[in-house]
Write a structure and sequence with these properties.
Blueprint lengths: L48 H4 L4 E2 L9 E2 L5 E2 L2 H10 L2 H8 L5 H8 L4 H9 L3 H12 L2 E2 L1
Parallel strand pairs: 1-4
Antiparallel strand pairs: 2-3
Helix pairs in contact: 2-6, 4-5, 5-6
């Protein structure tokens, strides 16, 4: 039997080069912006460190020997007691403790109760009502 020779034909592939596609670039429309207004941030009032966190300061009670003895006989041992005393204090009694350059209330609050910020503001108060307002404002910073 005769054997047949099978010839393989070479397959030739034609390579067709495509022209590169043109990139279409869309032009962005120029939109004119309206002039912006300058926003000036308001400066917040200085905050005490107690306001940064949610934790409030612990109210300080003066020991008996460091309590404040008011000219009218009252004995004060905390900012709460000072606020209550200022509520009913006669102007003459207040002036006795705040006469001249010395403010006994402010010094006591700074040195005994250790509230320097309250003491600074208290030193500027020239009436019992203003002093009471200062003390009440600072009491909000305390866990009472």
């Amino acid at each position: 039997m005769p054997t047949k020779k099978v010839q393989k034909k070479a397959v030739v592939k034609k390579v067709v080069k495509k022209a590169p596609a043109k990139k279409v670039v869309a032009k962005k429309a120029v939109v004119e912006k309206a002039p912006t207004k300058k926003v000036v941030a308001k400066k917040a009032p200085a905050k005490s460190p107690a306001k940064k966190g949610s934790a409030k300061k612990t109210l300080v009670y003066a020991p008996d020997q460091a309590s404040f003895w008011v000219n009218d006989g009252q004995i004060l041992n905390s900012l709460v007691a000072l606020r209550d005393a200022l509520d009913e204090m006669e102007k003459e009694v207040f002036l006795y403790h705040t006469a001249k350059e010395q403010n006994d209330f402010a010094e006591w609050v700074a040195n005994v109760l250790s509230d320097i910020n309250c003491a600074k503001e208290l030193a500027k108060a020239n009436t019992p009502d203003k002093a009471k307002t200062v003390v009440a404002k600072h009491l909000k910073l305390y866990a009472v």
